[in-house]
TrEMBL record, chains A, B:
It comes from Serendipita vermifera MAFF 305830. GO terms for molecular function: metal ion binding; NAD(P)HX epimerase activity; nucleotide binding. This is NAD(P)H-hydrate epimerase. Binds 1 potassium ion per subunit. It is found in: Cytoplasm; Mitochondrion. Its EC number is 5.1.99.6. Belongs to the NnrE/AIBP family.
Amino acid sequence: MSIRYLTARLAQQIDEELMSTAGAFSLDQLMELAGLACAQAVATVYPLSKNNSGTSNEKVLVCCGPGNQGGDGLVAARHLSMFGYKPTVFMPKAGSKEIYQRLQKQTENLSIPSLTTVSQLQDGLKDTDLILDAIFGFSFSGPVRPPFDEVLTLISKSKLPVVSVDIPSGWDVEQGPVQREVANTDGKKVEEVLMPDVLISLTAPKAGVRGYKGRHFLGGRFVPWSMQEKYELNLPQYQGFDQIVELPRAERNDNEQSQKL
Amino acid sequence: MSIRYLTARLAQQIDEELMSTAGAFSLDQLMELAGLACAQAVATVYPLSKNNSGTSNEKVLVCCGPGNQGGDGLVAARHLSMFGYKPTVFMPKAGSKEIYQRLQKQTENLSIPSLTTVSQLQDGLKDTDLILDAIFGFSFSGPVRPPFDEVLTLISKSKLPVVSVDIPSGWDVEQGPVQREVANTDGKKVEEVLMPDVLISLTAPKAGVRGYKGRHFLGGRFVPWSMQEKYELNLPQYQGFDQIVELPRAERNDNEQSQKL
């Protein structure tokens, strides 16, 4: 049985059920485990390694949106710091929920620098090894509004390695990559889409990433067996006590393969 | 610099600081990471392995006290279930805080059996491979009150492998093993002390476990660098993105070695 790719609506439903009285999870719990999984995916693909010019992969620019995805990013930034990385948080719009203030305070307590303006982001992009994209999650629906339109363009243009959380920012949750028309330096209009090198899906992958070609991990090892069955998620088996599992290529290209047949 | 063994008072102070407005952690967050570390310590020392008679190490009886330590146990039981173990929770006194009800509900959602009476515990001990002792933590001060006196005796007499969380239950947090006088089957008084095979200290080890001889892990990879320095914790380096680290024998026997010199 192949893994199930969720519609935006089903992803929302599972999320709500987990945090309902019946599911009994708190946002704090789920975000902690999700953010930890994101940090572990980064550390798996881009391990720290010392060399003559310093430590490679050390600097991670964690770009956070204003919703729960941004919260996952803040948690990931904290764990990356604990793992020995040097994360920087870029969060142009502070989340409104009280939890974001606590999560931000936790990153401050680790002396993780925080950027808020696009101009700071431009400087930040010149001084990072990779990017963790925690801008938009499964509740995103376009179009991309300012300042995030400019943010996505800057990230794409940076040519830096990008790890996206759950859904690459700007993609449609169900339809996948969406070309956005942006002006290049000459003022000409060009089509652009953020194409991450690594993706970490949370709970279960979303329909929009079915054709995704990069390395693809799954995190969020907390979905009760009964919910996995009820929604026929067919999640792959995590190994040992791992919090992430890499999805095999066959799973990733389900759609393509069936189109070829 | 050797790792610091905490007094009960300092352990309390660090815990409060982490959850203060300044530390900004929620109990949900810390308990989630602590419980995950406990489950990982169990899975490290007692990995699941299939053999002719079934799967060894599969059944884990998680004994939970009424305080935060019991909460760590409930989280550990949940993660153990996600790892493929078959945990059972024994919790004779339900914790009063709202969080315990949520954590218990989460274990119910995974169909983890729950025992509450000493008689059920006696049956449970006959049908388990190992025990996770999450009864008393760093805020314990003796004597051991009913029903936990009987519970500790039953656990000791079971001769099953025991993994203790933070401080072996019944031990003095600072002084270590405390012999308790109990009646054996003949009615004779004998001295007894719970001696776990594995210990997982959380945040930092407590003074009472300094002479502990079994395998000793540290978990709780969330203490900010500034707090580690302020309290001169000298924590060992966790590897990669591990959530636990095993303490070397040299660290464990600090006290003994200095006595021998």
